[in-house]
Amino acid sequence: MSRGLAPARPAVAGALASAYLSLVVLLPLAAVAARATDGGVGAFWHAVTAPEGRAAIELTVALAAIVVVINALAGTLIAWVLVRDEFPGKRLVNAIIDLPFALPTIVAGLTLLALYGPKGPLGVDVAFTRVGVGLALLFVTLPFVVRSVQPVLMELDREAEEAAASLGARPLTVFRRIVLPSLRPAIASGCGLAFARALGEFGSVVLLSGNIPFRTEVASVFVFGRVESDDVHAAAAVSVVLLAVSLALLLGIGLATSWRDRRVR
Amino acid sequence: MAIEVHGVTKRFGEFTALDEVSLAVADGSLTALLGPSGGGKSTLLRVIAGLEEPDAGEVRIAGRSMDGVPPQRRGVGLVFQHYAPFRHMTVRDNVAFGLRVRKRPRDEVRARVTELLELVHLSGLADRYPAQLSGGQRQRMALARALAVEPRVLLLDEPFGALDARVRRELRDWLRRLHDEMHVTTIFVTHDQEEAMELAEQIVVVNEGRVEQAGRPADLYERPANPFVMSFVGPVNRLGETWVRPHDVELMRDPREGSVEALVDRVVRLGFEVRVALTLADGTSLSAQVTRAEVEDLELEEGQIVHVRSHRSTVFAA
To answer: When comparing pLDDT for A127 and B106, which is higher?
Structure first.
């Protein structure tokens, strides 16, 4: 039967897919949310606004935002170079981009600590500082924008750029007015994923940051610490905030992209 | 001369796309670059537009050398086979692009765009996005966009190549009328000899990176310079060293001076025109193009033996 299962039995496929999603994704999320609020909304709010937790959340969100902006620029530039330029070793560089994905994050953390720590070969010591945390986050979130922009850039209509040039647009204008609008959704979705990853990053940060409360302690490390000291309540509350921020961001990007697609595709 | 190309050579690695190509295009004329795909005609167009740098030779537009002049300052309008629309802009913004880049006053841009949209019959679709247009409409938008900046030269790369036959014909007629009104020097690339014959005042046949022949359509048809041009600008029979067009084959019931016998294989009636496939005694196949009336006079049927001779044939010096 070459007709395939999915088109013939959409109801079954749909039920299977939603059952799987519920089991693997929704159930744990619900459990965290339930745990966070089982002491009532007041207790939840109290946990979230307690100074240390609040500081951790603020630091995490602020650092994630900065890191995403930097990687949006750098990632787009790298994708551009990888697609448009020819240079020896291009394939190797292309493969290396995925390293932060492939590397276990704790290994990344260890590497960064060796490089930027007190005994680092560069003489740069950013261990236990916010800069160090930022560096770790830059490292682990680099591939997102590169990998989402690259395929779009490869598919881009070069003739539209040539037409724009013949109409008098200088290279920078061509990039800003013709190329960038086409890349924007890809950059946005890459940023969304990078931001979500930065919010939850643990392994690469935990060694380099030193986890100094109010200074370098990020949300995920705070959550871990609370669980260790048996304060599951505060841990769950902060987790729910992280979850809400990620979810809002991903939904926002999804909506923005589909709104644009309806006009342009 | 609006455009002069002198000895232009362009290589891509080992491949020679253009081999010392020269040509001249008169002011206000409509010229076709005709040839098989991969023959270099698009590369030639791109060299004129400044999108490719020639390895040798020179392009002059309106008497000025274009050496080192970027596409932005050549005063050429470009139209591509796949329209190259700015997808995120409305039709109006597409057409306005060149004027806005040139920082023309807002009122002037608006007036000019309105006028151009009328010219290409897209006034009602100004606020649509390219994705919401048909192929023919997109190509008209691309033309309006190119014309907006009043280019000295309009360069069209297979402009009708992606359109279906009916739209293609409509757009071809429309381009011809537009050219008669505006007299912008125009070069278009095509691999369709009928399109070139119908539209162009001058045809330049390009093959394997060289110009095979340039001239008026009738000259190319009547006096082809070589077998390639002969076979590219229209159907042709080859009988040894002799080349005969199907419409120069004469069919008769009885033998006459210079005629030979042939077997009728197939008779294909295309309205007024009838195509007859024949086989000569030595096994060579021959195609003839005759009128319906002739077929009726001859009572032509498949399997019948007829006598053939040619009114006119061409022999090329070896």
So the answer is: B106
pTM attached to this predicted model: 0.83
Output the pLDDT for position A265.
52
pLDDT digits (tens, 9 = 90+) for B78-128: 999 999 999 999 999 999 999 999 999 999 999 999 999 999 999 999 999
Asked if A31 and A44 sit in the same domain, the reply is no
Considering the domain architecture, whether residues A146 and A21 belong to the same structural domain is answered as no
Do A16 and A44 lie in a common domain?
no
Say if residue A97 is in the same domain as residue A163: yes
- Kindly tell me the burial class for residue A156, based on how many C-beta atoms sit within 10 Å of its own C-beta (0-12, 13-18, 19 or more): middle
**Model confidence over B201-260: pLDDT tens digits?**
999 999 999 999 999 999 999 999 999 999 999 899 998 888 999 999 999 988 998 899
Q: Are the Cβ atoms of A160 and B145 closer than 8 angstroms?
A: no
Q: Give the model confidence (pLDDT) of B34-70 as tens digits.
A: 999 989 999 999 999 999 999 999 999 999 999 999 9
Interface test with A, best of B53, B69, B97 (most A CBs within 10 A): B97
Measure the CA–CA gap between B293 and B230, rounded to whole angstroms.
28
Residue A1: band (very low, low, confident or very high) from pLDDT cuts 50, 70, 90: very low
Residues A94 and A18 in one domain: no
B185-190 and B153-157 strand pairing: parallel
Say if residue A257 is in the same domain as residue A132. Answer: yes
Distance CA(A237)–CA(A231), nearest Å, equals 10
Same domain, residue pair A32 and A57: no
Note down the domain range covering A167: 40-264
Considering the domain architecture, whether residues A31 and A47 belong to the same structural domain is answered as: no
What is the rounded CA–CA span in Å between residue B293 and residue B306?
16
Specify the DSSP class assigned to residue B127: T
Any idea what DSSP says for residue B7? Answer: E
The enclosing domain of A191 has a CATH number of: 1.10.3720.10
* pLDDT given at position A262: 65
Question: What b-and-e string marks burial along B138-162, b requiring 16 or more CB atoms within 10 Å of the CB?
Answer: bbbbbbbbbbbbebbbbbbbbbbbb
User: Which residues of B have a CB under 8 Å from any CB of A?
Assistant: 49-51, 70-74, 76-80, 82, 84-88, 97-98, 101-102, 129, 131, 142, 145-146, 148-149
CB atoms B49 and A166 under 8 Å:
yes
